[in-house]
């Protein structure tokens, strides 16, 4: 039923609360888990760096170093999570393309022909949702397949 499950992660304990759910599904259905984490695209990195250096022309090396650092962090994080799941006998792949989280998750789901997308939500509403946006909402509205959303439990495992 669920051959390929895209699992959206952002490096936080909050996002990792989806892992027990997808692990159980993968064990039951023999699914391949595809862990995905969006990284900042070049344009965003440049926009974040530029204001901090007071209008001085951008140093391409600084942008490149920042992007390499972001890629290294994403790779290291995803491989750590993937290895834990692999030790449980699961098949796990990782992806960390640049782009907005919603777009990256949806592109990954389409390209992998996912049967399910799994992620957590903070359950924000009102002004918080307007200010912070909602990755979960964006994914649900445009997903090419079913979406499993787990509302996070606040406590000792997650901070926020």
Which sequence of strands runs across the widest sheet? 3-2-1-4-5
Secondary-structure element string: EHEHHEHEHHE
Structural class: alpha/beta
How many helices does DSSP assign?
6
Shape field: globular
Largest sheet, in brief, is:
5 strands, parallel
Parts with pLDDT < 50 across at least 5 consecutive residues: 156-160
Helix content: 40-55%
Structure description:
Strands 3-2-1-4-5 form a 5-stranded parallel beta sheet, sandwiched between helices. The chain has 160 residues and is an alpha/beta fold. It has helices at 19-29, 42-52, 60-86, 101-112, 126-132, 135-142, and strands at residues 4-8, 32-36, 91-95, 116-121, 147-151. The longest helix is centred in the middle third of the chain and has 27 residues, at 60-86.
Quick structural overview:
The chain has 160 residues and is an alpha/beta fold. It is built from 6 helices and 5 strands; from the N terminus they run βαβααβαβααβ.
Which keywords apply here?
160 residues, alpha/beta, 16% strand, 6 helices, five-stranded parallel beta sheet
Describe the secondary structure blueprint for this structure:
Blueprint: E1 4-8, H1 19-29, E2 32-36, H2 42-52, H3 60-86, E3 91-95, H4 101-112, E4 116-121, H5 126-132, H6 135-142, E5 147-151
Parallel strand pairs: 1-2, 1-4, 2-3, 4-5
């Amino acid at each position: 039923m669920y051959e390929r499950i895209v699992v959206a992660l952002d490096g936080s304990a909050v996002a990792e609360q989806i892992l027990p759910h997808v692990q159980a599904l993968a064990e039951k259905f023999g699914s391949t888990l595809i862990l995905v984490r969006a990284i900042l695209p070049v344009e965003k990195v440049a926009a974040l760096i530029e204001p901090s250096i007071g209008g001085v022309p951008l140093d391409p090396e600084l942008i490149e170093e920042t992007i390499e650092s972001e890629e290294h962090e994403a790779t290291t994080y995803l491989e750590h999570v993937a290895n834990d799941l692999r030790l449980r006998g699961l098949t796990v792949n990782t992806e960390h393309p640049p782009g907005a989280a919603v777009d990256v998750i949806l592109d990954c789901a389409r390209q992998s022909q996912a049967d399910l997308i799994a992620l957590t939500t903070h359950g924000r509403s009102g002004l918080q949702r307007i200010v912070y946006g909602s990755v979960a909402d964006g994914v649900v509205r445009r997903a090419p397949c079913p979406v499993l959303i787990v509302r996070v439990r606040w406590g000792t495992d997650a901070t926020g």
